[in-house]
Amino acid sequence: MSKSVATSPTSILNSNSSLSELAAQPQSDSDSSLSMPEESRNETVNSKCLREEVSPQINGISQVTLQDLKKELLITTVLSSWKIEKELSKLYPLSNILTDITSLKTQCTEFQRSNTQMDNSITFLYAQLAEMKKQLETERNFYKQKFTVLEEQVKECQPLSRASFIEVRNVPESRYETVSDLINFIQKLGMTLDIRINYHDIRDIYRRGNPEKTKTIVVEFMTVQMKHMILSSTRRFNKNRAIADKLNCEHIGMIGEKRPIYVVEHLSISGSKLFFQARQFSKKCGYQFCWTKNGKIFLRENTNTKFIHVKTEQCLSNLIDLSKI
């Protein structure tokens, strides 16, 4: 059917055009036949008869063709509408997906904006923390230096506050010992060292230390000179004596065990600890001399070397490192 439709419209259009031309001049043909010769009139009559025979056939064909075209056009229109609706129905889910995608894009944009704001806040806080850390580090260094200076000042003041103190160690303690007993012992010690110590030369005297061990006798004299006299006389007394014959309880007139007696400067707790470490170091590293003077601790390797002032434990650590080189 489609093939006939495809071919018939052109033939119909051609036939219709010829018929319209003939129909447009009916009167002129009849009028002209009167003036024409006989042969021409015969030809005209023949053509009229031919038109009358052909025109009903052409009209019937054109009517059938137009109806078919209308039907086919209607069918094509319906099919096109159906296809369009079908395609549109397929696009409905896609429109929902596009809506969801648009919503997701909006959410992603909001999320990115929130992340950007959060990053800016974190960057700001980090900068503040870095500044605070820098400020605290500066303050810490300042106070650390200040503390070191104050510590040094305290260390310098401590010997001054103990400038007239001495300690007498390893002296046996009696059961009912009194301050008078301690003063008598110090006076006997002075006699052994060829120093006269009067009662009024002593400002204060007491024992201190661990109860489980022999407590140390601490003596504060009225003058610093008396302290130096006692210490220097003790060194002279022990200088040329054997270890067993150095200053001991027997020299003081005490009955019982022959225990050595040590007369030294009175140091602070930190100073006593450092002096103990210095003595241990001198024994370990072969230093011949370790002593204190005016609350200061000194080391000397031998008589041909210079003395070393030990201020802190770090000084001993540095000496140990040097001895390893």
UniProtKB/TrEMBL annotation:
Span list, region Disordered:
1-48
Coiled-coil portions:
126-153
Cytoplasm among keywords: no
User: Which InterPro entries does the record match to this protein?
Assistant: FP_C (IPR057251)
Where along the chain is composition biased (Polar residues)? Answer: 25-35
Q: Where is the FP protein C-terminal domain?
A: 273-319
UniProt keyword terms in alphabetical order: Coiled coil
Q: Where is the composition biased (Low complexity)?
A: 7-20
* Entry protein name: FP protein C-terminal domain-containing protein
Q: Which organism is it from?
A: Diatraea saccharalis
